[in-house]
Amino acid sequence: MKTPTQLEPLGLVTDEHGDVINLARLARPVVPALAPRPRTIAVLGTSMNSGKTTVAAALIRGLGLAGRRVGAAKVTGTGAPGDPTLMADAGASRVIDFTDLGFPTTYQLPMPQVTRILRGAITDLTSHQADAIVLEIADGLLQQETAALMRTPEFRTGVDVIVFAAAESVSAVAGVRLLREVGLPVMALSGVLTSSPLAMAEAVAGADIPAYGSAALSDPAVAERLLAGAVAGGGVAGDGNARPEDGSRLTDHSGLPQECSRLTDYSGPLTAETVA
């Protein structure tokens, strides 16, 4: 690892009256939303670097290709331009994060303020005419703010579908179980584990929900089914998911046949049904 950047504080920026200028003073005003909240997908993960932002960007691209006006938000984390920029590059019509709402970080922030950020982000995107919302929640399920946020009534009522990003199969299975224990609608797996066919197969068999790589999430049909919650647990999925046909062949979401014996070359979403 490189040596951390060293900073020397020189002072605080003030206005003409000597009052300190900070992010709270520069926060975007949130316009009340007159329309109902659009359906919302939240991307959670096992930890940092599990692939959450890549998953969110792929979903944004897929929903955009389906003709959706997608609003995107990073609700928690520490301020940095990379993630919001990737969301914008993926085609989001509007991107907002906690820094826009006046907070440089959500670390150790009281939960009422974190839930206010969640409500503010959803309200802002709704008021700017998004017809689908993709949220990214930073860090992992055991990080203190994430663990508390996902148990709040605001999160339960503000999120319709969860896509869970994991780096490998054991944490994928454990994370899905934790999400189910608190009654959250986890519909699919994704993240770094999708770079390994074996990890995908293990995770699908253990969690009993489909797994999608970023290319599949960018498919408008797959993204739309996830938004609608049409991909169910128990290995049962929407029409675009992989299913056995004649016992020896598989069909991915693009309709291209693949041999069952060539699972390592299979690029479509995996389910417990197809792994078996």
Compact overview of the structure:
With 276 residues, the chain is α/β, with parallel strands linked by helices. The protein has 10 helices and 9 strands.
Features of the shown structure:
276 residues, alpha/beta, 9 strands, 6-stranded parallel beta sheet, 10 helices, 33% helix, 3-stranded antiparallel beta sheet
What is the oligomeric state here?
A: single chain
* Overall pLDDT metric: 85
Tally of individual helices: 10
Q: Please estimate the helix content.
A: 25-40%
**End-to-end span in angstroms?**
42 Å
Description:
- By secondary structure, this protein is α/β, with parallel strands linked by helices.
- It has ten helices and nine strands.
- Helix 2 links the parallel strand 2 and strand 3.
- Helix 1 packs parallel to helix 2 and helix 6 packs parallel to helix 7.
- The longest helix has 17 residues.
- The protein is globular.
SSE diagram, text form:
Blueprint lengths: L39 E6 L6 H14 L4 E5 L7 H8 L4 E4 L13 H17 L4 E5 L7 H6 L3 H6 L2 E5 L3 H13 L4 E5 L6 H11 L6 H4 L2 H9 L14 E2 L4 E3 L5 E3 L12 H4 L1
Parallel strand pairs: 1-4, 1-5, 2-3, 2-4, 5-6
Antiparallel strand pairs: 7-8, 8-9
